[in-house]
Fold:
Amino acid sequence: METNTNSFQASDYKSDQPVRWCPGCGDHAILNTLHKAMAELGIPPHKTAVISGIGCSSRLPYYMNTYGFHTIHGRAAAIATGFKVANPEMTVWQISGDGDGLAIGGNHFIHAVRRNVNINMLLFNNKIYGLTKGQYSPTSERGFVSKSSPYGTTEDPFIPAELVFGARGNFFARSIDVELKISQEVLAAAARHEGASVVEILQNCVIFNNGIHNPITDREVRADRTIHLVHGQKMLFGKDMNHGLVQDGFLLKAVELGKDGYTIDDVLVHDAHTKSNFLHQQLAMMDGKELPLAIGVIRDVNSLTYDSEVTEQVRAVKAKKGFDSLRQMILAGDTWTVE
Structure:
């Protein structure tokens, strides 16, 4: 990842286009933190591309002073993959909603993760189709009442983290639209990671699904129902930071320090870099009920990237065959002329 010694401000990444999201939409906060994360990284705007699919979140490229591509429904990951392979020096951000990314785009999503393409995939999860006016999405809960499920859905939702780990993902982080500092932290970490990085951001749709995340994100309960994971630090949470996660056999358990004999020494230390994904998956699957919802960088493990391997393969074949261009390759074998 190329950085620049010249300092950049968040304003350097903002376009001159008016932001056309509903007042109060969580997308505003995500856009703000993305601008700040890019300034923190110091990657020049002309070395950055933002690629989206279709949906409210996918309007984001218009608001970036970078290269941008507003593509078609569900195909952002496929186009971002092609762009990265063709332009390996570029930093590529992919923007998708839960509908765009996990429904029609689900196949592209899991294979971009499996291939470990070096792109930063942002998944805005409001558990609804907002742009098309309020149908249930792949992350809507069973029984959810919407315009397309007036009597309640009869299916279970995808859990984005579960898809990422099922596809052998090496980077997964989560944040909440109202947690600006943590969002900036995980976005910067995603960009620094070499390989496919997935950041799920719980985002509020004020029009069609207002308050869907409130049981976890409301200020009154957030400290007790979320845990901010930081590599190398104890897994503590709560308003007074007096609760922690401990190992209970093969499972995790939330305990109160000083109660039932538990002390700070029993609390687990977060290791985002361990190659085994067993504990990472357990952390990512906590839902804010019996165990707090994990936010922050949950998994960050280096591995070979698809785009760098393809680039090296092309270089090796060209060196072996002596090709410098497509024309040379075509004319390298037997040729004939039709008079």
